[in-house]
Write a structure and sequence with these properties.
Elements (H helix, E strand, L loop, with lengths): L18 H11 L3 E2 L9 E2 L1 H20 L3 E2 L5 E3 H4 L3 H7 L4 E6 L2 E9 L4 H11 L8 E10 L13 E11 L2 H23 L4 E4 L11 E8 L5 E11 L1 H5 L4 E2 L5 E2 L2 E7 L1 H12 L16 E6 L5 H17 L4 E3 L6 H10 L4 E6 H6 L1 E6 L5 E5 L3 H25 L2 E3 L3 H10 L3 E6 L7 H10 L4 E6 L21 E6 L3
Parallel strand pairs: 3-7, 15-16, 15-17, 20-21
Antiparallel strand pairs: 1-2, 4-6, 5-6, 7-8, 8-14, 9-10, 9-22, 10-11, 11-14, 12-13, 17-18, 18-19, 21-23, 22-23
Helix pairs in contact: 2-6, 2-8
Bound molecules: zinc ion.
């Protein structure tokens, strides 16, 4: 396993050619995590990862609150009997549940699940809290970790404990609940693209691939550098399934009783970290967007000879000024060489580097270097903070353009299943094709296609664009008349 010592050597791995090696090296070498904790599938998050996740939470939480969600913190444990109430849900999740069966030396009569998701905890309380029409809508979120007994794990992509946000909302009508899923879709794709430069494709998943116990699932796919998709979150319309199962009822305005319609939304903070690292990173390490970078600017003194001490002193002062200006900055005044420092901060994804030497100080300037393009710009010290913010925005714009162009270049049409297979093998990405149905009756074709293409999955239909099959188009698998246009991709 690569260690953080890697950062001290020249790092040069081709992300496009060997993404798996790149990813498996960078998550440790950049100092995001330490993988040496002695329980498989559980990860120690170092300050870089912890601050990056906090930055992502800080983008999403205010959006949820502006949309009327209140924060809550529910217990990590859920009693087994709650779990068994909704039949599809229990079937979907029980194979992955960690059970707490003992406290001290005492065997529990009722085993406790470590939450794999919290519907069955929330609905227990919704039954007590929701009584009247006026109690609705009820909208909560919690930022927490959940636990799933996964066999194959990969940090930030699949873990036995991972970080996310879960919302649980209840509404008086189906229309309001479905409206909420549309809002969730909008919030997720906007935050990821506008602030993190990660383009998201929103799908309505096929019926055979929905959340256990739900009616409709909408999910957010991000294209990874190896052509596979990473689902970074999802939102679910649950209809009345959970409210009926848990006996959650409200008195309507006209006096009758009704079960609320509910939704849940799960932005995968862990997976967003993986997406940001993978979509933007390059052969030298991470490239973090200015908005969430735990260190936005590294000041590196170029100190030589007799004025070395004066340069370092001045750099510390400049960094302190930037900090006062609200910029997350470090002044790297260690005795390492400038080259070593450049590599070190580049590996960690710091968006901007400021180089200051004796000549710059005399001229009252600094050299600003962008992490993504390595473009250098000489700016007056008096305007340094403003210039850094401007460069930070310019860098995000470049990252967005590159990521969007990459996604566009990875959507390919196919008319036969052989073509689907060829595209998935040669370049990956999405294959747009005709399909018989995304209702239950299409599942057999999806399974056949998945087997034929060795892992190509029907991701569903686009949410933000209505697409109708061409006249006379046939399902790519069974040859029956096509009812829908779907996208096929391999996934994590
Ligand atoms: Zn078919």
């Amino acid at each position: 396993m690569a260690s953080t010592m890697m950062a001290q050597r020249e790092f040069d791995l081709d992300k496009r050619k060997n993404f798996s090696e790149w990813y498996n090296t960078i998550i440790y070498a950049s100092g995001l995590i330490d993988g040496r904790y002695n329980v498989a599938g559980f990860v120690v998050h170092k300050p870089l990862a912890t601050r990056l996740m906090r930055g992502i939470y800080a983008l999403l939480e205010p959006e949820l609150e502006a949309d009327g969600h209140e924060p809550v913190a529910f217990p990590t444990v859920i009693p087994k009997e709650n779990f068994e109430i909704e039949k599809e849900h229990v079937a979907g999740f029980v194979p992955q549940v960690f059970w707490v069966t003992k406290g001290g030396g005492e065997e529990f009569a009722r085993p406790l699940a470590l939450r794999p998701t919290s519907e069955t905890a929330f609905y227990q309380m919704f039954a007590l809290w929701i009584k009247a029409h006026s109690d609705l809508p009820m909208k909560f979120y919690q930022s927490c970790t959940v636990f799933r007994y996964e066999h194959e794990t990969l940090p930030f992509i699949r873990g036995r404990e991972f970080h996310w946000i879960e919302t649980h909302d209840a509404f008086a009508t189906a229309k309001e609940a479905l409206g909420q899923t549309a809002t969730d879709n909008e919030i997720f794709s906007r935050v990821l693209f506008d602030h993190l430069g990660v383009p998201v494709t929103v799908f309505k998943r096929p019926q055979w691939d929905k959340f256990p116990g739900g009616e409709e699932t909408f999910a957010y796919d991000v294209l990874m550098p190896d052509g596979k998709m990473l689902q970074c979150g999802s939102t679910h319309y649950l209809g009345q399934n959970f409210t009926k199962a848990f006996g959650v009822k409200f008195t309507k305005a006209d006096g009758g009783e009704e079960f609320p319609f509910s939704t849940c939304f799960g932005p995968g903070v862990w997976r967003i970290v993986a997406a940001v690292a993978s979509v933007h990173g390059d052969n030298k390490g991470l490239i973090l967007p200015f908005s969430v970078a735990p260190v936005q600017v590294a000041v590196v003194p170029i100190a030589k000879g007799e004025n070395a001490e004066a340069v370092v002193k001045e750099c510390r002062k400049i960094a302190a000024g930037l900090k006062k200006d609200g910029i997350r900055v470090v002044c790297d005044d260690s005795d390492k060489s400038p080259g070593f420092k450049y590599n070190y901060w580049e590996m960690r994804g710091v968006p901007l580097r400021v180089e200051i030497g004796g000549r710059e100080l005399e001229a009252g300037t600094a050299t600003v270097v962008r992490r993504d393009t390595r473009e250098k710009k000489v700016v007056p010290l008096a305007k340094l903070a403003d210039e850094l913010r401007k460069e930070g925005s310019a860098m995000l714009a470049t990252l967005k353009d590159a990521a969007e162009a990459d996604l566009k270049a990875h959507v390919t049409e196919a008319k036969t299943k052989e073509e689907v297979k060829n595209v998935l093998e040669s370049k990956g990405g999405f294959v747009r094709t005709h399909f018989c149905s995304t209702a239950r009756d299409g599942e057999a074709c999806a399974k056949e296609l998945q087997a034929f293409t060795i892992g190509g999955k029907v991701r569903g239909t686009l949410v933000n664009k209505e697409e109708k099959p061409a006249a006379g188009a046939k399902c790519v698998v069974c040859g029956h008349s096509a009812k829908t246009v779907v996208y096929v991709a391999k996934q994590y």
